[in-house]
Amino acid sequence: MNWKWEINYLNINNYPYMEEHFESMAKKGWMIRKVMGGVFFIYEKICPKSLEFSITPYEMETLFTKKTKEELEEFHSVSERVGWEFVLKSFDLHVYVKEKGKKTVPLTTDEEEEFQNLEMIAKRYLKGQYVLLPILLLSNWFAFGLILNSVEGFKNGMIQWMGFFFPIALILSLLHIVDLRHFVKVNRENVKQGKSLEFSKKYQKISQLLMSLCYLLLLVMILYILYSILVLKNGVLAVSLLPLLIGLSMGMIYRNVIKPWRKNLLFKKGALVLTFILTIVLTLPTSFIAFDVLLGNHRELNAKPCGSSTIDREEGVLRRNRSLLVPVSYETVCESKKETIRTEYAKTLTEKTGEKLVVLYVKKEKEVLIGQYAPLVEKSFKTGIYEPSLQEVGLTKEAFEEYLMQEHGKEKAWERIYNESITEDSANWDVDEAYYLRKEKDVLVLRRGREVFYFEGVDCTKPHDVDKVKEILQRDES
């Protein structure tokens, strides 16, 4: 093999140790050629040599500027003129090499100047982490909230992979903040006292592990997205990615087109503000759609006309999905002039997972009831006047007047609404669990072992629709 790779860690607070590591690898016959993401090191096989490496910090970009290709070439040419050959760049660190013992001018002679460069780079990194930290906190709350408390979180593999990624990214962000702040503080004092700069490998192993896991999970999520879109034909996932793609595209345009322009700072600030506003204008409409898609509120997306078999899952396929908790799931939406029929199927990892999914379907329907009737319940208990619409969910005038006079009457009213709307009926369906989720009995969730079935718009008081549901159950059993 002429190439090999390793997982390591190169950062502004440990690069002298990496110089020694590269020298050791060269003696074994391996020349560093590429550092990807600061952790993936790629080596080329060479004859074992005694080489000397020098890693130099050079700030590549700020919020408003970015070094051009010409500026980089000029920087490298200066180093080459004094005997150092450029090897690679990893973020703001540039790696140079020369033969051991060859007399050259050191690339770094003034530690105070070196620290000034390091401090500027560290401050920029810290600003980025301070912006990223609240985003990661919010993302963790959002991802875990969906996984633990929503049907979509159970069935959507993307959300579950985010549940692994965001906690690791959060820990890594906190670690970087602590490490960089300590590095800057210690060396600022060292420079004042005329001491040498201090570098550390204290968090080397844990940083390399966490960064490797982050990159691995990012790769898995990208592969999952491609698999879902190309193989599972999951169009709604593609829709949900539009805001991210638009935001990334605008960021790349600003970074690679606007930053390198030879314009004054005022122009660059105006360009940044304009790019930010344009990004919001372009992503806002798609963000609302994406949020609805992620939460499963996409009932009319790609719906197809109902045929003769209105609740056959092979008609009007909306989405197929796979996740760690639910390896197989798909759903359909069919529309006619009079009705919309929605069916969902899930084969869960274990029977316990199936039970939890049923609980989440029930919880979801309770939230629908709250959204529809909470204003009426609040108004009725506040004014003491019964709202006739509450009859639709089983809260009669007599029951309301009784609860109105009781302590915790509002809570009891809601308990009655739930009990009237969500009823259990496993025996009649010959399954492990069966719940009608509305008083009209047009929403039904069934569980048979690891399989969970959901039907919406199916009138379970009509023999024809009941027969069709049982047909689907028998077909899947076979």
If you had to describe this structure to a student in words, what would you say it looks like?
With 478 residues, the protein is of the alpha+beta class. Helices cover 54% and strands 17% of the residues. It has 14 helices and 14 strands. The strands form three sheets. Strands 7, 8, 9, 10, 11, 12, 13 and 14 form an eight-stranded mixed β-sheet that branches. Strand 8 and strand 9 form a beta hairpin. Residues 298-317 have low confidence and may be disordered.
Helix share, percent: 40-55%
- Distance between the terminal alpha carbons, to the nearest Å? 52 Å
> Helical element count?
14
- Poorly predicted parts: 298-317
Coarse structural class: alpha+beta
| Major sheet details | 8 strands, mixed
Strand content: 15-25%
* CA-atom Rg in angstroms: 31 Å
Outline: elongated
What value does the average pLDDT take? Answer: 84
- Oligomerization state of this entry? single chain
Order of helices and strands: EHEEEHEEHHHHHHHEEEEHHHEHEEEH
What is the count of β-strands? Answer: 14
Helices and strands, with pairings:
Layout (H helix, E strand, L loop, with lengths): L2 E5 L7 H13 L2 E7 L3 E6 L5 E7 L11 H13 L3 E6 L2 E7 L11 H39 L1 H5 L1 H36 L11 H27 L4 H6 L1 H17 L6 H30 L9 E2 L11 E5 L6 E8 L4 E8 L3 H33 L13 H8 L4 H13 L1 E2 L1 H4 L3 E4 L6 E6 L2 E6 L6 H15 L1
Parallel strand pairs: 7-9
Antiparallel strand pairs: 1-3, 2-3, 4-6, 5-6, 8-9, 9-10, 10-14, 11-12, 12-13, 13-14
